[in-house]
Amino acid sequence: MSILVAEHLKKYYGADETLVKALDDVSLKVERGEFVSIIGTSGSGKSTLLHMLGGLDNPTEGKVIVDDKDISGLKGDELCIFRRRKIGFIFQSFNLVPSISVYDNIVLPIRLDGKKEDKEYIDNVIETLGISSKLKVLPSKLSGGQQQRVAIARALASKPAIILADEPTGNLDTKTSQDVLGLLKTTGDKFNQTIVMITHNDEIAQMADRTIRIEDGRIVQ
Amino acid sequence: MKNVDNKKVIDTIAMSGIRARISKYIVLVLAVVLTSLLFSSLFTVGGSMVNEIQEGSMRQAGGSCHAGFKYLTESEYDQVKDDPKLKSVSYRIMVGMLENEELKKIHTECYFAEYENAKCGFSAPTEGRMPEAEDEVVLSNVVLDALKVPCEVGSKVTLDIDTENDLVEKEFTLCGYYEGDPVSPAQMAYFSKTFQEKYAPAKTVPLPDSETFDYVGRYSVDFNFSNSINIEGKVQALIARTGIRENVDYGVNWAYGASSLDPSIIAICLALCAVFMFAGYLIIFNIFDINIISDIQEFGLLKTIGTTEKQLKKIVMKRANIISFIGIPVGMALGVLVAVVLLPVISGQFVTVSVGKGQLHVNIWMLLVAAAFSYFTVVISAMKPCRKASKVSPVETVKYTEKTDRNGKPKKKLVTVILSLSLALVVLNSVYGFVSGFSMDGYVENLIIADFSVQDISVDNPGAMMRETKAIDASLIEKLSDLDGVDEVGAIYINERGQEFSGENWAEIEKNILNSDQLREKYLSYGYSEEDIKNINDYTRKSGTLGGKTYGVGKLAFDKLKVIETIDGKDSIDWDVFNSGNYVLMTRFMTDKDELDFLKPGARVQIRSYDPQYEEAVTAVGEDGKEFEYYSFENAPLKEYEIYGIVEIPLAMELRAYGIFECNYILPEKEFLALNGSDWGAMRLLMNVEDSKEEAVNEWLKNYTTEVDTNMDYDSKESIVAEYSSFGDMIRIVGIVIAGILGLIGLMNFANTMITSIIVRSRELAMLEAVGMTGKQQKTGLMKEAMVYFAWTILCSVSVSALISVTLIRMLVNAIPMFNWNFTLVPLAVCLPFIAVLIVVIPVIAHDRLCKKSVVERLRVE
After folding, report:
1. Could you report the predicted ipTM of this complex, rounded to two decimals?
2. Which of B244, B651, B686, B782 could in theory staple to B450 by disulfide, Cβ–Cβ 3.0 to 4.6 A?
């Protein structure tokens, strides 16, 4: 059974002569536990696709079904609550909250939901990612690679239906990129997580179980 | 070194920086507007008041010129007029006095005068012009009203002029008039040169050589020096320089010597200035401070591409200039408008001028100082990011920026906002504490002793030169007592001649008073030197007299006297015994701290009769060897009385002009008139009226004093209450305006801080939303943050207000008689909930505005 289904997704900006078709009839399916990479050049629409899949933005047309729930009609706070329960985000620029500690960052989505964290599970995630010694410091004291590991931990913390990673290694050097990607794949396997990652780098894309190529808002392969 | 011509590029950078963050600069301009509004209104009101107070003194002194010579001949005038050190010289020539029957009580002098001279005497025509033809005249509205001639140019008026030699009765045409000051010692009537030459030709014999004291046809010359420092010395020098006779009569305008402002008012103005400057600094500085990251980043960037520090400063100054150029003039204009509204209210509380009160006097220098204050505040605040940027290397500025950004909220911002909000609240609370302490009950009681009090207009006018204390004659008393509804009347008579003592009594007074430290201290507080005091005391000892008044009171007034001590030890005085004609009451010697008895009850004193029948002309020889004549009562009889008791006279009954001793006697009305002659008029008539008739009597008195006899004036219980409550209104209005503007600044400061902090964190907030923080949760978070501001504001404003209330306000309030100090925080209790609402609403609105953009868009902004 597919955990993530996109049907005839369209996202248009502007109108008439200035009409930009960022996504033009994209359909795809991702199975539970799969590691899928979406590859495309800058401006190909891959980020827009990720935003649609993650409920950060509403499509102009089409449907996104995550864990059997159609999210294309959700608005504002509904969408927001859906995100924190079902989706884990990993951003290129880490996007950690600067004023709270690493640990608080990791459990933020759970606490925002008013729930208590599964301590054992979280400890397991933290240990796997090798950031146990950094839990009490502020994100600004960490290196880029460390920050991204915290971001991965945050994405995993709420046991989401899928993890969406937007160029997770875009701000890291090659060596660190390898480390982070390795960890992403390992934790995905270990905790049986579905991961969708976008990248413009073929080599990175090859690490995934399956690669989807997107160009000019359409899936080409 | 060669100067680089880079003005154009600097202008471009300065302007583009403003355009890039236009909203910041709009807020800045607003802040500058408010700050300069505060300054300019304070300075305009202050300047206008100083001007008014000075004009008040000048009107009392009779003119605005520095000094003048009197009784000159034409040739003497010629000697003076071209002196190079005089800035302006003008003259008038005495023609005589107006003798019309209707002007019996209005002393009116006739002159030919140059326009400049009339102007400096505050009597230049405000409508029409100075006379040219022989039958033209300029009069004041006071004179015209008395003559019942319409106040318009072209009116015909018949005048009786006493020109010393002649009594001229003639019809004139009014060619101009001015607004006369009812308290000024004399009204002016101006005639043409032709008229003067015909009826009062200029004298050629100098006054000392003249047979008689002939003032008609003589020149009065008024002049100004380049400045008002040491006028007396300058006049002496002028006399020596021009060779005019040494015994020339000259007058120096004392209005220039008088210190025109109370030190306490100056202190209040300075305090306000400091508060305004602080408030202005807080907001303008804060705006720059919360934008400091982007500013430093911009300056760092400019530095990396080779902008020198000097050039950076130029850019900052350029921007400060643009902000000031727009903000300051607008603020100034608004400030002057505020002043126009406030001035009449404030001026109404001061005894200054009786004509043209509360008029705006815009002093360009004052406005320039106000502008300089505002500009200075802008420059100081604007320079800070520039200085900070100059301390770090260009590359580090970027890092520095990031660090500050990530460390969250800098504490300083919190402090400025809280100070700014608290400042307004503290000022409001203090003003309220001051105003609510205003309690008329105790004070006004002292002022109101009857339903009505009727007296001559000059009696209670502190600006009057002469007080007419015998204006109420028997027929007026009869008329007033016969009015419908009048229950009782009580006249108060007064004789200001002072008291004579001898023998045992004088020895007692020397011991009790003249040798006392209290008297010495009182003299010292009046500014006398030890040597002066010794001389005055020696003179007093020799004379055997003390300054003071003898009052004659009817039963109504007698009942209001406060009894201190009596001959029989009782705490009241029997009217019938007192009225028997053998007794007198006496007051005490009062200083700020003590009361001393002149004499004890039971002492027997002698009071001289001032019945006009005993007045006799006496010829004496003066110091200059010449004989002169004066009128004396030295052979008038003395009558002996026993001091029945020691009393205090309520303020409302007194003649409010005081000497150093105030050794006063109180006789029964009947005895006073028996002693001084029954023609003696009363100073004041107190009236008690049936409640239902008060309105009617009030109408009657109003009509009488405005239509029948404009020299008479009356106070009603209501008018006194109204007068004093208007004082409360003034403080209230001024306080609300100040606290309102400060409050506006405080809230603007808060709003600006909150909004900027939300915009700065827009990406962070978007990020939180991406990981699932709902809008509601974000708003709650922002509100919590705002509540921190609020909590601190409460803490700060409540504690400082309380502190000020128990210290400063208590001190101030207790120093003023009609105020009682109460601890209050009511304004805070009223305002804080409103502020709480605003503090919560502003971040929510700002957040909503932010959320118009989608999460994706906001995330993209780096």
Report:
1. 0.76
2. B686
Tokens in use for B289? Answer: 């401070």
- pTM summary value: 0.60
CB of A189 within 8 Å of a chain B CB? The answer is no
Query: CB-based contact (8 Å) between A100 and chain B?
Result: no
Q: How far is residue B254 CA from its own chain's centroid?
A: 18
Cα separation values, A210 from A144, A179, A213, A221, B217, Å: 27, 20, 10, 11, 122
Nearest chain A residue to B769, by CA: A80
What would the DSSP string read from start to end of B520-566?
A: HHHHHHTT--HHHHHHHHHHHHHHTEE---EEEE-HHHHTTSEEEEE
| Gap from B765 CA to chain A (nearest CA, Å) | 9
Question: How distant is the Cα of B767 from the closest Cα of chain A, in angstroms?
Answer: 6
Phi, psi dihedrals of residue B780, rounded to the nearest 5°: -60, -40
Asked if B153 reaches chain A (Cβ–Cβ under 8 Å), the answer is no
For B318-363, how does the pLDDT look when each residue is reduced to its tens digit (9 = 90+)? 888 888 889 899 998 988 888 888 777 776 666 555 555 556 667 7
Asked if B780 reaches chain A (Cβ–Cβ under 8 Å), the answer is no
- Residues of B within 8 A of A77 (CB-CB) are 774-776
Q: Mark A104-137 as b/e (b = at least 16 C-beta within 10 Å).
A: bbbbbbbbbbeeebeeeebeebbebbebeebbee
Q: Is B855 on the interface with A (CB under 8 A)?
A: yes
Runs of H (alpha helix) within B62-114 = 74-81
Give whole-number Cα distances, A47 to A21, B140, B443, in Å.
13, 90, 80
Q: How far apart are the first and last CA of chain A?
A: 22
The region that residue B26 occupies, defined by phi over 0 for left and psi between -120 and 50 for alpha, beta otherwise, is: alpha
